[in-house]
């Protein structure tokens, strides 16, 4: 009887070992396939580019509604004009002021870090030809220049008395969010001048958004 039990234990142990070995082999194969796609496939470089050859932007706002961050577009301003009905016009952002700027800048930083990492991997990949590597290097420089321009614009706007500012440069637009519920025409013009000078973009590419807390948009019950 002991011999039978011992045999059963041995068979069970072997079955467990085979199952574990199969799982590890499956996991290792999947990991290897991911690495091959990321690093060793020259065609994966194309995923980083837009149709015009410019660097593809990695979205950092896939879900703006999370953590109380929501964009309320199409609201009307006090003068009766529809916000965000034109590129460069002010828009209202409905969110939590205390967390918006920290989260927005963190998302932007993570997005740029991901872009830089992928481009660096392409540059260091022996399977990528020199022409593609040079394009990656050029786009890597472009990202760094965007970061510097964003930082310069934010610092200059804050020096004018605005407590918090967020600037995001993409291929065709520059988004600016200012920690103030309303902006006068003078303030809009001041911010527009700073952004166009620091980033080199045209006015119709700039979208300025005064930050409006979600609490202030909720009607007060009487």
Please summarize what this structure is.
The protein has 222 residues and is of the alpha/beta class. The chain contains four helices and four strands, in the order αβααββαβ.
* Structural class label: alpha/beta
* Fourth-tier CATH superfamily name: Stage III sporulation protein AH-like
How much strand content do the residues show?
5-15%
SSE order: HEHHEEHE
Look at the structure and give the CATH class.
Answer: Mainly Alpha
**Helical stretch count?**
4
Biggest sheet: strands side by side, in what order? Answer: 1-4-3-2
Q: Which architecture per CATH?
A: Orthogonal Bundle
Kindly describe this structure.
By secondary structure, the protein is of the alpha/beta class. The protein has a single domain, classed as Stage III sporulation protein AH-like (Helix Hairpins, Orthogonal Bundle). It is built from four helices and four strands. It has helices spanning 2-40, 97-123, 130-158, 185-199; strands at residues 93-95, 165-169, 174-178, 206-213. Strands 1-4-3-2 form a four-stranded mixed β-sheet. The chain is elongated. The model is unreliable at 23-40, 57-85 and 216-222 (pLDDT under 50).
Provide the fold topology.
Elements lengths: L1 H39 L52 E3 L1 H27 L6 H29 L6 E5 L4 E5 L6 H15 L6 E8 L9
Parallel strand pairs: 1-4, 3-4
Antiparallel strand pairs: 2-3
Helix pairs in contact: 2-3, 3-4
Keywords: Membrane, Transmembrane, Transmembrane helix
InterPro entries: SpoIIIAH (IPR024232), SpoIIIAH_sf (IPR038503)
Protein name: Stage III sporulation protein AH
């Amino acid at each position: 009887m002991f011999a039978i039990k011992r045999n059963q234990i041995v068979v069970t142990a072997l079955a467990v070992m085979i199952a574990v070995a199969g799982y590890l082999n499956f996991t290792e194969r999947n990991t290897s396939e991911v690495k091959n796609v990321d690093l060793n496939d020259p065609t994966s470089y194309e995923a980083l580019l837009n149709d015009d050859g410019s660097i593809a932007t990695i979205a950092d706002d896939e879900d703006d509604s999370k953590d109380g961050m929501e964009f309320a577009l199409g609201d009307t301003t006090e003068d009766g004009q529809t916000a965000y009905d034109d590129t460069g016009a002010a828009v209202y952002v409905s969110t939590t002021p205390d967390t918006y700027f920290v989260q927005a800048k963190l998302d932007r930083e993570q997005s740029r870090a991901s872009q830089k990492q992928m481009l660096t991997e392409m540059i260091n990949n022996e399977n990528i030809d020199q022409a593609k590597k040079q394009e990656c290097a050029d786009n890597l420089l472009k990202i760094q220049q965007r970061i510097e321009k964003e930082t310069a614009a934010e610092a200059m706007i804050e020096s004018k008395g605005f407590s918090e500012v967020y600037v995001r440069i993409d291929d065709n637009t520059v988004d600016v969010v200012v920690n103030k519920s309303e902006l006068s025409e003078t303030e809009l013009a001041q911010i527009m001048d700073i952004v166009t000078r620091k980033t080199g973009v045209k006015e119709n590419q700039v979208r300025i958004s005064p930050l409006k807390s979600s609490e202030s948009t909720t009607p007060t019950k009487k």
